[in-house]
Amino acid sequence: MTEQSPNIDEMNARSREVFRRVVEGYLESGAPVGSRTLTRDFSEQVSAATIRNVMQDLEYLGLLGSPHVSAGRIPTQLGLRLFVDGLLEVGDLDGQDREKIDRTVTSNNQDVTSVLDQVGQALSGVTHGASLVLTPKHEAPIKHIEFVSLSAERALVVLVFGDGHVENRVFTPPPGQTPSSMREAANFLNAIAAGHTLSDLSAVISREIKTRRQEINALAAALVENGVVLWENEGESTERLIVRGRGNLLGEGGDEADLARIRTLFDDLERKRDIAQFLDLAEEGEGVRIFIGSENKLFSLSGSSLVVSPYMNADKKIIGAVGVIGPTRLNYGRIVPIVNYTAKLVGKMIADRS
């Protein structure tokens, strides 16, 4: 918040209670909250006129807004930020929610990406929002490499990693490749690749080719070198954003303006633009972070809120993130512990597998 922004500690008890009840009422119903509604269950006996005066003061401070003439009030983005920072009560993780998330990481037979996909499905299911899971760069040691000829112009490289992850990548091999040259290239790579990650394999291969060129023929050498270029530039080896539950956001859309914002969000998710920024958002602070409306630089055009938390590997290095995105009327108190728990569970799962 800026220096001119209101401070929750500077409000008197009545203003703070009115503000809190307006925000909580809006987050629960999505509708403006009126003075008569607050009067019915206010902690002290005050008139609707008194509460209206307090609401007008809060509106003057930029914390509340009135969407329609003679309607109740809703929190502004500034108001939501003030509420989240100063008044939000984070609940405990519901037992059923915990069980649904736990079930996604119980199988050791699936690769990490498949598990993270299931985590995203579960996260969107329990939060009724869209889930975002940023998978890590695959840095597990390589266990086995195999080349498969598909045609004269297409070949498949199968990469098996030490953690059980398998990647199949189609590429264009150098001209003149034969099944025997592919086997020779695979044998050469398997002899030197074991224990190395894709990130450091390129340097190892270049060094080995110089010292052992006599051991492989020209065709196999060309295939190996072509593979080095393929692996260095292949997009699948970089961070990947898994998005699940976009349909949940459509259910939140009321008027045309809401639907237009959601369509903008869908376009952003479809393009997965600036994916690296998603991890940047999580890395800027430990634990769960909440971005409201335009504070969320990744999806700011849609006016959405993002609750995000990084997860770490066994070396306590941040390697990915999980989050939930939805309208600003998110149930923050419930979603924060869900995202926090999911991030810790994913980090533990990856650490155990490594």
Describe the protein.
One of its GO terms (biological process) is negative regulation of DNA-templated transcription. It comes from Yoonia rosea. One of its GO terms (molecular function) is DNA binding. Negative regulator of class I heat shock genes (grpE-dnaK-dnaJ and groELS operons). Prevents heat-shock induction of these operons. Pfam families: HrcA. With 354 residues, the chain is of the alpha+beta class. The chain has three domains: 8-86, Arc Repressor Mutant, subunit A (Orthogonal Bundle), CATH 1.10.10.10; 95-136 and 239-353, GAF domain (Beta-Lactamase, 2-Layer Sandwich), CATH 3.30.450.40; 142-237, Heat-inducible transcription repressor hrca homolog, domain 3 (Enolase-like, domain 1, 2-Layer Sandwich), CATH 3.30.390.60. The protein is 47% helix and 16% strand. The chain contains 13 helices and ten strands. The chain has helices at 13-29, 35-40, 48-60, 77-86, 95-102, 112-127, 179-193, 198-212, 218-233, 246-250, 256-271, 275-283, 332-353; strands spanning 64-65, 74-75, 130-135, 142-149, 155-161, 166-171, 240-244, 289-291, 305-312, 318-326. The chain has a five-stranded antiparallel beta sheet with strand order 7-3-10-9-8, sandwiched between helices. The protein has a three-stranded antiparallel beta sheet with strand order 4-5-6. The chain has a two-stranded antiparallel sheet with strand order 1-2. β9 (305-312) and β10 (318-326) form a beta hairpin. It is elongated. Residues 232-239 have low confidence and may be disordered.
